[in-house]
Amino acid sequence: MNTNKKQQFFDQVLFEAAKKTGDTSQIINDIKDFQKKMNIEADTERIEQFNYELQNKKLETEKEIAAAELAKISAEYTGADADKKQELIVSIQARNETLQKKLSVLKINRFPTWADYESAWQNENENDFSPELFNRLSFPEGSISYIGARTGRGKTTAQINIGIEALFPKNTNDHRKILFISLEETHKQILRRFSLCLAYRNADRETREILLTVKNPYTGKTDPKNAYKKWKRNREIVGDGSAVFVNAIIDADEKIKTEVINGNLIFFDGIGAELHEILSAVNTMNRGDIVLLDYIQKIPADKKSHNVYSDLERIRDGSQKLAQISKQRNCVIISGAQLNRESQKGNSIKQDEFTDADFRGCGDLEQDGTNLIGIGRTANKQQTYFSIIKAREHGSTDEKYNINFAGGYSFMEYSGKHQEASEKSAKKEKVITTNETDKANNFDWTDANTGKKK
Hints:
Layout: H1 3-21, H2 28-38, H3 46-56, H4 63-75, H5 82-98, H6 114-123, E1 143-149, H7 155-167, E2 178-182, H8 187-201, H9 205-211, H10 224-232, H11 242-261, E3 265-269, H12 275-282, E4 290-294, H13 311-329, E5 332-338, H14 356-360, H15 365-368, E6 369-377, E7 384-391, E8 400-406, E9 411-417, H16 436-440
Parallel strand pairs: 1-5, 1-6, 2-3, 2-4, 4-5
Antiparallel strand pairs: 6-7, 7-8, 8-9
Helix pairs in contact: 1-3, 1-4, 2-5, 4-5, 7-8, 8-11, 10-11
């Protein structure tokens, strides 16, 4: 990058930081560190001029937002070394804590005019985010939605697939930036899921069948996660489908790497994080960006109130704050939710059922959620499905829809309406897994656990 380009880039960073704080002198150390790590030569004395101009305009917000803005802009700078960019982002995020400032509450216009109303329509994205996974259900900007399920039904997997659809849309140019906040799984686990999911999603029917033959030599079970680990550690992968697997994962891994380097897939390690840190991370997102949170029951309490909050109050408070910030940033937040098991007591022979009461029972989530989606499976564990329990802008529905689930690859795919067995045969439940429409659409009904055709 030539000198002029570097100068322009630094000016952009400096201006954005100053615009957010009104006084960049408070984060001068961050700016100098930014210059050094990004190899940008610039005269920091010009900061005084920025301060003067901006203070006269009485622009003011919290300082930590400026530091986050520096991190965001540096992530979008394609000319920098990827490792240095990541180091910079981490260091600035850590510096945020030393500023000892709470999350900035953006100024909200409590008395908007008609001009504000017209402007809001012009600023909005052309289309709502509408993933194929949930039959094109709309997730509007400025909203929070919840995907509820019991343990092992696919909450995290669903979010991985939403992320893949946002980063790599099939039939549209609606590419979205993703912030994945994990409160349970590690960075390594989540990015592996993204790569495996993309590898399987991009494969044709024949290749998918081969990918499902990749087994762990010790257990004899389908185990692409173990194969991926060996590949990452430069170990030889042997057995059926190994060559096809390697080719598919090389392509997928490179695509995921590119999105991470370009700042389009951002991972936030929320394990042990405080609530203000999580909210600060969300506050770096912009209109139409997607925030995936795994999952709401793990949300930490506000530090001040930690000792007096019950679990339900902690979850309710976290949900309300997330809902508020989604509106302020006009981003889309989609969170997993661990459903309680009360409604299933005594019903072990039946398939999963869920209502808005299940969301209410784990923190009044139905109050904040624009969409409430439940993911379950049949009693014989042969079919995964979802139900739209609440859709604020599209009405509610009790219908269930099948999901093609390749668990080893963290892959899910919408595959038509779910047909339930009659009450008389509920104990010997038979789920119709293939019909002429599915055949025409080339849906793969291979069991992800056994690798056998259903």
